[in-house]
Design goal:
This protein is of the alpha+beta class and 187 residues long. The chain is extended, with a radius of gyration of 22 Å. Helices cover 29% and strands 30% of the residues. β6, α3 (127-136) and β7 form a beta-alpha-beta unit. It has helices at 2-32, 37-41, 127-136, 169-177, and strands spanning 51-54, 70-78, 84-89, 95-101, 106-111, 119-125, 146-149, 154-162, 180-183.
C-alpha cells in the first residue's frame, strides 16, 4: 500500500501541474500570437475610411467563418497622437461598431440605434484626452459625440453592416466602406 500511495500522490501532482501549464498557455496565447487581429488590421492605421475585411458572401477574407449576410470592415487606431473619430451615416441596414483592445477583447460596442439625426460619431480617446476635451468644451454648446475611453493606446474598430437579403449585399458593403476613421491631433 505504501508504494501505491506514493504513485497516487505523484499522479495527482502531475495532473495539477499539467492543468496549471495548460491554463497558463491558454491565457498567454493572445500575448504571444504574431498574427493576431491587430497585426492584420494595423495597415489601416493611415486610412481615412474603414477597409473591408469580409464582403457579404464571405469570399476573400482571413476571418475563420464569415457571415455571408454581413459586411465587415475595420480601422485601427493609435491614440498616442490624439483621439480617433469614427463617423457613419445610418440608413435602413443595421450597423454596429465594436471597439477592441490591441491585446484582445472588446471594451465598447454600439449600434446605429445610438445615432442622432442619422449620424453616429464616436470619439475614442485616452482618459487624459477626455479630461482635456471636457476642459476645452463650451458649456453653452456641448459636444454631441459619443466619447469612449480606450484602456490601451492602440486598438481597432470592427464595423458590421447586415444585409437581410442577397440583393442588399452591395449596399451593405458600401455602407461599411463609407465609415470614416480619422485621427484628431492633440492641441
Amino acid at each position: 500500500m505504501r508504494g501505491f500511495g506514493r504513485f497516487l500522490i505523484a499522479t495527482l501532482c502531475g495532473i495539477v501541474i499539467a492543468a496549471g501549464v495548460h491554463i497558463a498557455a491558454i491565457l498567454a496565447s493572445p500575448y504571444l500570437a504574431e498574427q493576431d487581429a491587430f497585426a492584420k488590421v494595423q495597415a489601416t492605421l493611415t486610412a481615412d475610411k474603414a477597409q473591408i475585411v469580409s464582403a457579404p458572401g464571405g469570399e476573400n477574407t482571413w476571418l475563420p467563418r464569415p457571415d455571408p449576410a454581413v459586411a465587415v470592415a475595420t480601422c485601427a487606431f493609435d491614440l498616442r497622437n490624439g483621439p480617433m473619430r469614427i463617423a457613419a451615416r445610418t440608413g435602413s441596414l443595421p450597423l454596429s461598431f465594436s471597439f477592441h483592445k490591441e491585446s484582445g477583447g472588446v471594451f465598447f460596442a454600439v449600434t446605429d440605434r445610438a445615432a442622432v439625426r442619422g449620424e453616429l460619431e464616436i470619439v475614442a480617446m485616452t482618459a487624459r484626452q477626455l479630461d482635456e476635451a471636457r476642459a476645452a468644451e463650451d458649456e453653452n454648446d456641448p459636444s454631441r459625440d459619443v466619447r469612449i475611453v480606450a484602456p490601451e493606446q492602440q486598438g481597432f474598430v470592427i464595423v458590421r453592416v447586415a444585409a437581410p437579403s442577397p440583393s442588399l449585399r452591395p449596399q451593405a458593403e458600401d455602407a461599411a466602406k463609407a465609415v470614416s476613421c480619422t485621427a484628431e491631433q492633440d492641441t
